[in-house]
Please model this.
Amino acid sequence: MWLGFSLVIKAQPQDDDITQAFVQISTKIRDSHPRVFINEDMLGDIQAKSVDRNREHFDAMKDRIDKTIDKDIVFKDISITDGTRSTDHEYGLIAADAALTYLVTGEPEYLYYTKKVLKKLNQYYAARNEQNLNIHWYAYSRISALAAFDWIYNDLTERERSEIGEPLLSTINTMVFLDGRKPAPRENRGDYQTGYYGNPVLAWYAGLVFYKTGINDQMAEKLLKQGFEEHWKLLSYRKQVAGDDGGSATAVMEYNIQAYPWAEFNFFHSVKSATGIDVSQQWTSPLDLMYYTVWNWLPGNRHVGYGDVDHIANQLPLRHMYSHLTQIRHFYAQSHPNIMPLLNWISGKVKQYPSDAIPFARYLVDYQINGKNTVGKATEELTDLPSAMHFENMGQIFMRSGSGPNDTYASFSAGGILTQHRHYDNNNFVIYRNGFRALDSGTRPEPGQHLTHYYCRTVAHNCVTIRMPGEKFPAYWGGPASTETPLSIPNDGGQRELLGSTIVGYSQNKQYVYIASDATKTYHEDKAQTVLRQFVFIQPDVFVVFDKVVSKSADYPKTWLLHTASEPIFVKDNEFYETSQGGTLFCRTIFPRETKATKIGGPDKQFWSDGQNWPLPALTPKDWNYRPDNPNRYEKLAIMPLLGQWRIEIAPQAPKLKDSFLHLIHVGDKNLKKMIASKAIDQENKKGVEFDYEGKTYEILFSNDDTVGGSIRITKNGATIVDETFTSRVEHQESIFKTK
Model:
């Protein structure tokens, strides 16, 4: 139930807006405990869930506590450099498990054990702080420890509240605020524009637990205000970046559907339990993320591999997805019933795990709305979605011929406002048909120059390069492994700006999808005058790619790139195919008529750039990410197909200021043995291609002068189906979840 809380939301809230919201929230905080995630009004429901819906989970949790309750509490790695590499932090989760077991059963031994664990945790936190060492990359175990203290607060004596509470508050305060200290090694200081699951997120929960308890009220109120302001900024920021079509604080799936949503869900629950106010209805960014996730979803629970992901299998990271869907049902099933078809479609592809990142999260949600079960029947196919979806702020357009395992999917990267975990890949495309036909190559070893010198660079993507001798490129995050000699960033001829491309034309219908994107500003201004790509998807399996590239000097070589999982085979000088993973790609160069086609790849050349290979590194104990149980893991990954073992480079035979590349791409399953026939069209100021496909004749022309655009004509049995110019406007689209 929404209790009438209302505030005018601005995309970038001003200080007085946040202050107003904080006053309205803080004055509603209940005086009694528990109040963080759980309050006394919720206890009956939680107890009922422990013997019904969550019985298996509760019994397993109780059994774990019963097996450890008489054992000594030992911190094995109190001086380890990176606490994330240790399990010591898990005592925070154990404290929450024990406290929850006490709330449900009322048995005093669980109260005693919770107090025992919290006292030991205080010693551990203090010892790590004194050494300026982190606890863990994620703050979840410390949020759990704070919640545990809140849940047993009523059953502590005044002395116990002080003995346990004062050091807990103080050590958490040290983690939240630097106050002159240097960040600890591998300390997560990510702010509201990131996933917000490191030390700064603790401010809200510590402040809420200790607010007006008499245990350093000044410190508690400072934390409460800081934490609220950062969460409010986070919600506003995620609303802003999602726009009206959807998305998240990052376009990289390895991040946005794993830890990122917990910042919102945890805040929503804790505000509601402490104040009775449901702020979730004003902030629907989880719905924006869900819609975006659906468009990223490929057969086999894969994704396109955008940005800083490992490309080993391009599997969607679904470890938290069931929990996220449960949270979305809880907050939005009643107010946004139109989410259910897509939510049920995703639900049919994921499973519930025995534990969650927030171990008590499943006790906070409603599984029924007005007496009806919100967990619906899984659906097999998606219907009523457009042929393509443009996520403007994410800088991506996704296309698909359907939602089945034998459909064709594609993505196009351009525009956008986010740089986090983004590559120098403007105008890049990825094609999936029974496997990855055209893919992003490389992976993200940490540390390793493969990441900084190849993987993030334009050469690792399906783009166009312009090589200007002597060009210096900007650094990317990361650094060399201990076994590597630090080298200068290679001159791959690529882009130097993560942002700067612009979608100048976009439309979609059941016949075709058209994209025009100008990426000129992402290249060095001294080498590029025009870099324009027009991309046409003819449903279900054909693509036409036209690149108009004008350099500042004819001596700057231009190269068109396409990366594949397995070795491509040339059928003719201007045509090749690749087969792997159960699918096939054919590609034919229509223009230039005279080209030099080069095949690059195979062992020791698959990550080639500027005259050398950039292999995956060998790590040693000197490297922070070294794993003794698998010391050669990166070297073993080098042959993985989805890292992109091969690429084709197409270059004009003769140097010119202006070059136009026109490519026809035909994809299918493993039974596709021949590419569709085609005819080049070379008219005054126009270049194009004509071909017959699926009983229709297509004539596609592109402007080859200083203008952008072209036309498409589709006929069948002599009758014209489509005859129109390509749009010079960008079709506006909105998420189906947006309310007017």
